[in-house]
Amino acid sequence: MTPTSDFRDLYASDAHTPSRAEMARGNHFLTADHGLLGLLQASQLVTGDLDVDQVLSNLAESARTLVDARFGALGVVDDKGAMERFIHVGMPPELVERMGHPPRGLGVLGAVLTGGAPIRLRNLSDDPRSVGPPLGHPAMKAFLGVPITIRGSVYGALYVTNPSEKAFTAHDEALIKALAATAATAIDNARLYARSRRAQELSSALSDVAAKLLNVRTTEVFAVLAESLVALTGAQLVSVVVSEAVGSELYVDTARGARAAQIEGSSVPWMDCVLSRAMDGEPGITPEGGDEPVPFADDIPSASMVAVPLVVDGDRVAALCATRSADEAPFSQDDLELLSEFAAQAGLAVALAWARADKQRLEIVEDRARIAQDLHDHVIQRLFGTGLGLEALASAHPQLTDSIETHVTQIDAAIADIRTAIFTLQTRTGTEATRHRLLRILTELSDTLPTPAQVTFAGPIDLIILGPLADDMAAVLRETLSNVARHADAKTVKVAITATSHTVELKVDDDGVGLSADSSRRSGIENLSARARAHGGDFTLSARSSGGTRALWQVPVNSPEHS
């Protein structure tokens, strides 16, 4: 049997695989042949999957195994050259977690990325570029780093340390370089596949959004977008945030996902963060490891937030925001591009939906105007004529005067009711009635309360609470109930909404723990007070004599702001 056939028989058998020490004691042919076999196996492993994350994990582990190193890692950089992802192999996950923030691509690690050439060191700490290992990282001596280049650009680098021998050899370097070249193709294919799959998911999501927007009320448009984004981005929380103007407070119009009921309807002050920048027209991701404030962090401890503006007919109407918790991978540039494209296409779909709703409202207004005209020109005139006839009959038959006057009074009351109906038909524009809008909010938030809130309406709610006043009333009700759910620990909640010709009142009573010094609640009180002052009214939060808290929001109807 020839030496070659001996080696082939050896590799065809699972009985024994030579160690590096055994190979070092043998001839060079054995070492080279075993290295090529390991490279072939590693190449098959990293090219056998189309999931980017799995390809990267396989690559890091293959590099470590190929050169018999104790520790291995793979660093990935973003478009700006900053370290975006760092994958450890060879150490338990709990140790990786204890080390804290991953390397930022400084020192020797960064030199591999910026230099574009392999770096092989016998002792890592002797190199002047070394900045030392992360806190808690096991000691590292011999080091080998090889860049991964895709289409002429550095995508990342492979790092291995602490081989079974004292140092890495030129042969080890050649193997890792060959693996990096193979991996570059595999990574590129996986990225192209991921983009193709995201494009399909985006197309499907947008088709679903467009179909749903044709069949929902305008008040539910943002809900459709939020629900689609939860599925598309895999985020724990998706919110649609609005603001009256740049620099004004941020208001969460709609939220879906974890603790969405607590977030929806709340307000946060304008701050320098990814969300406010999106409201100003600049999409972005929260900087990893930075000191930038993160909205809703008290409710969703988050590792990453991405936000993009939603533009409809040339106007920025909201910001779409997705949040991932600390247990999930942070958002990447690809996620930002996906969300930006979704927002751009969704803006067109929303514009079409709103245009369709405007057309329907116009048709309703025209129809109501016709009905109001018919009531005025025909029904009222007939009733008025009947009343005159009865009065004439009373003059001819005095003994029937009392009975006829009763009927005339009833006719006058019917005419007054019809005139009220005419006024309602002329002032309603096809938007959702205020009473229904408030009931919908109560239904949405019922799951956050121990029992559904008891609600009473008094007065002509739909005639008086209109326009900006209706918007503020809805926002106040949502935020007040959210505060009760988060802070009151109440068993029952009662809501009373009253409208008269002079005032509008919203009263929320709960039997909870009463008032506290919670700072977050104070900021919410200030927001509710500001909404009342905008209409010349007032908001008070007081203790009830029977226990619990009363929130009272009152505004005059005849204030300049309302008129």
Keywords:
563 residues, alpha+beta, six-stranded antiparallel sheet, 16 helices, 16 strands, elongated, disordered C terminus
Could you explain the architecture of this structure?
It is a single chain. The longest helix has 64 residues, at 333-396. The strands form three sheets. The chain has a six-stranded antiparallel sheet. Strands 2-1-5-4-3 form a five-stranded antiparallel sheet, sandwiched between helices. A five-stranded mixed sheet has the order 12-13-14-16-15. With 563 residues, it is α+β, with helices and mostly antiparallel strands. Helix 7 (170-213) packs parallel to helix 11. The chain is built from 16 helices and 16 strands. It has helices at 3-12, 20-25, 28-46, 52-66, 93-98, 107-115, 170-213, 221-233, 260-263, 274-279, 333-396, 401-427, 434-444, 461-464, 467-488, 519-533, and strands at 69-77, 83-89, 119-121, 143-150, 153-163, 237-242, 250-257, 267-268, 284-285, 302-312, 315-325, 454-458, 493-499, 503-510, 538-543, 549-556. Mean pLDDT is 76; it is low at 1-34 and 559-563. It is 49% helix and 20% strand.
